[in-house]
Amino acid sequence: MAKKDFLKAFMTDQGLNSPHLNETCTGSSDFPVTETLKDLPPVTFLQTVSQTVRLIEQKLNEPVFKRMHIYLQGIDNNVCCMLQALLPAPAACPAPASRRTLSPTPTVGSFSWKLERCKIIQSYQRFMEAVGKVLETWGASPGQRNRKRRSLLNVLLGQRRKVRAG
Amino acid sequence: MALFLNLQTVFLLALMHFSTYRTGKGSSEYLVYPPESINVSIRSDEQCLDIQWTVHLHNYTLNLKMIFQIDIYRSTLSNTVENKNYTTTLKSNETLQWCWHSVLPLECTSHFVRIRSMVDDERFPESRIWSSWSPPVVSKGQESSGEFHIFPNDIMYAEEDSSVTFCCISRTDNDKIEFFYEDRYMQGIKLSSRTTMFEVKNVAFVRRQGSNAYCKLDSSIDGVVLYVGGVLEEPKDFSCQTRDLETLNCTWHPGRDTLLPEHLPNNYSLFEWFSQKKVNCVHRNWCAWQLAPDMQDTYNFTLMAENKLRKRRTSTFFNVNQQVQPKFVGEISIENVDATEATLRWQIIPNQKNLTFLCQIEVYDNEKGIEYNTSNSEFTLSGLQPYTAHSVRVRCCIASHFWKWSEWNSKNFTTKEDTPSGALNIWRIVEPVSGGYNVKIFWKPLPTFQANGKILNYSIAMETLGKVPKVDIFFSDSDSNSTEKIIDEQPYQISVAAINSAGSSIPSVIVVSGNTEKSIQNIKEDRVNGTRDGIYLSWKPDSEETESYVVDWCNYPWDAICDFQWQKFGSNITSAIIRSAAFQSGVRYNFKIYGLSTKHEPYLLAKKTGYTQELALDCKPEVTVDNLASTSLTLNWKDNCTDEPQYGFFKGYHIYKKPEVEEPCDSETEKQVFSDNIVVCMYTVSDTKQKTFNVKKLQPNSTYSFEVKAFTGGGDSLAGIIKVTTGTHENTNLMMTIILPMALFSLLLIIGLNLKIQWVKEKCFPDIPDPYKSSVLSLMKFKGNIHQAILNTSDCIPDAIEVVNKPEISKTQGLRTILVGNEITTPAYLYLLPVGKDALDSQACICFENFTYCQAASDSGSCSQNQMIPTDQMMSVESSEHLLKVDKDYIRPFGNTPAGEEVSLNYVSQLAPTMSGDKGNSSPNLPEPAHCSEYKMQMVIPAGLALSFPPEGDRPISVASLDQLEKPC
Q1: What number is the average pLDDT over the span B824-841?
Q2: How far apart are CA A153 and CA A147, in angstroms?
Q3: Is the CA virtual torsion B571, B574, B579, B583 positive or negative?
Q4: Which of A31, A45, B516, B763 has the fewest Cβ atoms surrounding its Cβ within 10 A?
């Protein structure tokens, strides 16, 4: 699934796909950016991904985002599976940080609700782009021609062996 | 009560006296209660300015009727937007309240409210004076908040086609604010330096997620989502009913979808006025209500439908006992089923309150349905068909007040067997065999309604009717429909009956006798015409003893198992159309028609044969041509066409004549126009044995195509085709052999005749010489003017005419002119023929010699002596000029003139051929007058010396005119 599909679909559904409102959707994001993520150790990185995805799930926990919610749960499950290969449960998939208290939710269907949800989806997509860039750097050894086909789990397992060996 | 009211009025009047409000300095006293504690607030969701106030009242002013005038204005009094008279009856400690709905969002600008009051009570008419206005109370707008906003904010609702007003408030004065509705820029109206109003008219539904309206100030955007929905319709067909008197089910038709979002549904609720209970309905078109049957029978329900934009309501009032649709408990039961009867039982609710029901029962067998009604919960069906499957269904309603039928409750059952009713339909075939007859007895199975059960077998009893009584009984299987038996010469009575488990049917009887079959040979078979429906048969009615008629035939006559069929008719029927699903086109069916006596003895009446539809024969004649002539020929053909029963009745041949060049059909033929517009002439040969046909009246030297086809009632067979070209006409040769020689002969004859005529003409009527062309003229050329050679009559006046044949002339009667001349030596004769017939008849010939031109006479001087003496007065009158005007004068030398007398030249004018002896007329020996039937007009030109010839080229002048000469005649 293309990563921008959710944003485009939401904006089309809500009538936000106009030049003025497009700009409004592209606000600043509270989620970690590429520069922050790439310096994180793999486990921390994956935990950050998991926590961020869960936070987004909480914010988009409304019927209109049902499909997206399932999609996010799938990502979270995958990340947790990888984490559990590295760490013993339940420490593998920690709950979202409580420090991030959710702001008062605007009335569903209101203009501010539309803009806020638009911003969240936009932030999510930026975050996932950053995650993708970081994952691309993993296991990029010069001798590996077919690295794209190498599963993320293998990379992580290789990382774990390095950690234990070190 | 009345006393109490009077006391109250008196009491109020007394109080009024003590509690009048003295206004100003006036002495009059009246009641004035100005509004107090005015409070104004905004209810944003309804865009309503909520105004509340109180009036300080004494207890004794309860129920005082008052009017409050409420002014609402923006900024200044001149900008009043509402002036409302609010009328109410005051109550104790009541806060008065009124909500003003504003088109412009109330946050957009400040609104000022002031109120004044007036007592409007009939009891105090003098107090109808307005109080002073209250101080204005302001509802502050957001225009001074210093924040950028749009109002209404976040969410608002509107119905389709309504107008919606927005306002945008800027942070500072005169900021440039843009407003967009669904990305459409819209112009606004400036309400103040910071507030701009925008109106969107006739809003339409765009999407369930609402239409976006927003204000843009630089990069800031504040917006509202406008949800546009259809107008909430009033619920229709609202009604309630119960099935069990415990639960009431109310239904309605909600109308069209308002298309509002799912989180803003239309809510429906039921309110019952007597019990004051309310139920919120889960569904948009029905709602359940728990009844209290022992407490309440009458209900007054109001159904309320509402959403964010509108409220609708509708009501119904009813007695619940009259709106009951009963329902069955379980299935109906069927008991005591026998051959013709069965009992039904059922249970139905509600069974409270001793309600009576009316139940409808419908019973169906295979063929029909019967309806019964009952008010009981059981019913016995009777008169049912034995051994028959039945379907029964029951429904009920409340008898006292019909509301609705219950659903149908159905069940099937089968009645028991009974003895077969009626008698079998039997018939027979009798075939002679050695020593007797082979009898085949046929019967038709009883129909279900007569079999009354499963037929086990058939009993056949054969009883002799002869001197020795004998009965033979045997049985046939249930699935058989015939049996066969050989009998002797004596007649037998055969009885057949059907047997089931309940008994036997009435036996059917027929008498079999060999005599019947003997009569078959004596009856001629007739042909009958079929139709698509069947084959029509008719027969002559027989004696009064005939009980019925029977027609029998085979459905498959060519097959060994021919599927023998028969049909019986009443004694009053003498015709029928025999129908069978087995009938096919091109199959000849043979029918025998019998009469059946009262003694059950059949006798043959007629034999018929025919087709439902004939087919064309499957054969093809081979055609040859004989005796080909120019206008006729003979067609011969050979074929294998026969009168076979597989096709149709062979009726003869059709001969189609197709000329290459279209020509009309004669009377012996029938004109046929084919589908491709080809016209042919058709001969019909009715004799199937005739294999030759003479075709006449053909055109010579023409090409014809002949097709010979055998035909039946079903059409023509394949065609034998031959193409023939007729010869040339026979008369042509005849003409060539007869007419041509005749023509040659005629031509030769004509030529011969012509030659003969020429000869005769030459002989009898030689050409009259033209004096102008005479050779004499050439001789005269040298003499001078040729005109002088032919003299004009004026030049020479005749002086004498000599009549030569005097005795004859004298004897001639009727001759009017007699010319007398002197005697001359060599006379030249000029004959005058008489005009009259008598003269010719008399064969008189008058010859006169004109000596006028007789040079010889002249020369001799005797001319002067010649005299012409008219014997007739008339003629005598004629001048000599007349004689000189003869049209044609002919000059001819007298060939017979003696050589010695060459001086004399005679010119003879002739009208008739001269006789052979004329040549010698010049001689003194003149022929007999009797031979002179013509005259000669002669002009004699003397070759004498004295005659002077005219110059050459001049026309000679006639010396005598025949006409002139004739006239006297």
Answers
A1: 43
A2: 13
A3: positive
A4: B763
Contact B219 A15 (CB under 8 A): no
Using a CB-CB cut-off of 8 Å, the residues of chain A touching B207 are 13, 15
3-state SS class at B31: coil
3-state secondary structure B902-962: CCCCCCEEECCCCCHHHHHCCCCCCCCHHHCCCCEEECCCCCCCCCCCCCCCCCCCCCCCH
Is residue A13 within 8 angstroms of chain B, CB to CB? yes
Asked if B859 and B940 touch (Cβ cutoff 8 Å), the reply is no
Beta strand B154-159 with B220-229 is: parallel
Q: Which ranges constitute the DSSP H helices of B150-198? A: none
Question: Which A residues 40-79 touch B at CB under 8 Å?
Answer: 63
Residue contact A109–B225, C-beta within 8 A: yes
Cβ A109–B227 below 8 Å, yes or no?
yes
Average pLDDT, chain B: 78
Q: In this model, does residue B334 exceed pLDDT 90?
A: yes
Give the up-direction half-sphere exposure of residue B592: CA atoms within 13 A in the CB hemisphere.
23
User: What pTM does this model have?
Assistant: 0.51
Interface test with B, best of A20, A114, A116 (most B CBs within 10 A): A20
Residue A23 touches chain B, beta carbons under 8 Å: yes
State the pLDDT at residue A28: 72
Q: Tell if the CB–CB gap between A20 and B221 is shorter than 8 Å.
A: yes
Long-range pairs, B523-527, Cβ under 8 A, ≥24: B523/B604, B523/B605, B523/B606, B523/B607, B524/B607, B525/B590, B525/B607, B525/B608, B525/B609, B526/B606, B526/B607, B526/B608, B526/B609, B527/B608, B527/B609, B527/B610, B527/B649
- Residue B364 confidence (pLDDT) above 90: yes
Which pLDDT value is given to residue B789? 55
Describe the crossing of helices A5-14 and A111-137 by its angle, rounded to 10 degrees: 170
pLDDT at B180 over 70: yes
Contacts with B308 from chain A: Cβ below 8 Å = none
Where is pLDDT greater, at B253 or B727? Answer: B253
- Please name the residues in contact with B94: beta carbons below 8 A apart, sequence gap of 6 or more: B54
pLDDT tier at B951, thresholds 50, 70, 90: very low
The ipTM (two decimal places) reads 0.82
Q: Give the integer Cα–Cα distance in Å for B180 and A21.
A: 11
* Residue pLDDT, tens place only, B44-72: 878 899 999 988 877 556 788 899 999 99
Summarize the confidence of residues A34-38 as an average pLDDT. 85
| Closest alpha carbon within chain B to A17 | B183
